[in-house]
Amino acid sequence: AAPDAQAASTFRALLAARCKTTLKGWRQLLDTVGSNRCVWMDFEQVCETLQFEAAPGAWRYFDPELSGGISLKDFDPVTGDRLVEFRRWADREFGG
């Protein structure tokens, strides 16, 4: 499948609708072990749960280098960046 930006956007919207935010969806459904990584098999299973049929194109959009896994930053760059900024702030304010 070719990378499909529309499919990726639709998937993120479905996940946010189900879990209230993409971050909650990432943690509750895609990265349930907290490794900051989601592999194809887990992504495909979530797509089945959400009855999302364009999984291959969405996955290729999130993983254009075919690395076999995606991070939060790959999945949702804005949220990933905000989480990194928050972590840096917390480390500065309260120590790492």
Q: Could you give a quick summary of the protein structure above?
A:
This protein is mostly helical and 96 residues long. Helix content is 67%, strand content 4%.
Helix-strand sequence: HHEHHEHH
By secondary-structure content and strand pairing, the structural class works out as mainly alpha
The biggest sheet, with number of strands, parallel, antiparallel or mixed sense and barrel status, is: 2 strands, antiparallel
The overall average pLDDT, rounded, is 96
Approximately how much helix is present in the residues?
A: 55-70%
- Note the overall shape: globular
Low-confidence stretches: none
Strand order of the largest sheet: 1-2
Distance between the termini: 42 Å
Tell me the Rg in angstroms.
14 Å
Strand content: under 5%
Q: Tell how many strands the DSSP assignment holds.
A: 2
How many helices does DSSP assign? 6
Please describe the topology of this protein.
Layout: H1 5-19, H2 22-30, E1 38-39, H3 40-49, H4 55-62, E2 69-70, H5 72-75, H6 77-94
Antiparallel strand pairs: 1-2
Can you describe what's shown?
This protein is mainly alpha-helical and 96 residues long. Helix content is 67%, strand content 4%. The chain contains six helices and two strands. The protein has helices at 5-19, 22-30, 40-49, 55-62, 72-75, 77-94; strands at residues 38-39, 69-70. The chain has a two-stranded antiparallel ribbon with strand order 1-2. Helix 1 (5-19) crosses helix 2 and helix 1 crosses helix 4. The radius of gyration is 14 Å and the shape is globular.
